[in-house]
Specification:
Catalyzes the complex heterocyclic radical-mediated conversion of 6-carboxy-5,6,7,8-tetrahydropterin (CPH4) to 7-carboxy-7-deazaguanine (CDG), a step common to the biosynthetic pathways of all 7-deazapurine-containing compounds. By secondary structure, the chain is an alpha/beta fold. The chain has one domain (about 5-205): TIM Barrel (Alpha-Beta Barrel). It contains 6 helices and 9 strands. It has a 9-stranded mixed beta sheet with strand order 3-1-2-4-5-6-7-8-9. α4 links the parallel β7 and β8. α2 (about 65-75) runs parallel beside α3. The site of iron/sulfur cluster has 12 residues, from loops.
Length: about 210
């Protein structure tokens, strides 16, 4: 049970429910292959049925952690930081990102875009979800659009989403992991016929790293 005072600090983004943090290789999307420190913030109510981090959903089971501590841990390892979740925009990211910026970090976010954008970002990976669409203003800020393909209807969804992002936004189709054997051939065909798209794979899972 967290105190009212702590809850207030979490609401302001001065503390954040930290699920896990680790130094690894970004496995997906544009920065695939790049060493980065991942900060996974708890809390998400989007509810994707295939979500591979369902344990992130309930923010209350993840300890409210002062952002100073998060920044100190991260910068011991890397100046390239990936903020993920959960859905990090559940929380106000202003204080965390400005503290990381003061340390000269490059900060990337992985978000569904379902909540208001807060914080300062060097790279925005928007991964929209059908069941809780991104806030309209987030599309213009996306550097990469990563659509998870679970079934063939997701290609149509991907095109609808691609119509909303900036023309320089890099477009990725990524197979949902549990259904990858079925969907990879369809994604490969689709990308060859629609080469504005690229394939993204969860290479960290093939490499057996977090
Ligand atoms: S938005 Fe991300 S964390 Fe939330 S349910 Fe969907 S896949 Fe899981």
């Amino acid at each position: 049970m967290i105190s009212e005072e702590t809850k207030e600090l979490v609401d302001k983004g001065i503390m954040l429910p930290l699920m896990e943090e680790f130094y690894t290789i970004q496995g997906e999307g544009y920065h695939k292959g790049t060493a980065a420190y991942f900060i996974r913030i708890g809390g998400c109510d989007v509810g994707c049925h295939w979500c591979d981090v369902k344990e992130s959903w309930d923010a209350e089971v993840h300890p409210p952690t002062p952002i100073g501590q998060i920044v100190e841990n991260a910068t011991k390892f890397s100046k390239t930081i990936v903020i993920t979740g959960g859905e990090p925009l559940t929380w106000d990211m202003t204080a965390l990102t400005s503290a990381l910026k003061k340390q000269g970090c490059q900060i990337h976010i992985e978000t569904s875009g379902a909540y208001d954008m807060t914080g300062t970002w060097d790279w925005v990976c928007l991964s929209p979800k059908k069941i809780k669409l991104p806030k309209p203003e987030i599309y213009a800020q996306a550097n990469e659009l990563k659509v998870i393909v679970f079934n063939k209807h997701d290609f149509q969804f991907a095109e609808e989403q691609a119509a909303k992002v900036h023309e320089d936004c890099i477009l990725y189709l990524q197979p949902e992991w549990s259904n990858r054997e079925k969907m990879i051939p369809q994604i490969v065909d689709y990308v060859m016929q629609n080469p504005k798209w690229k394939v993204s794979l969860q290479t960290h899972k093939y490499l057996n790293i977090p």
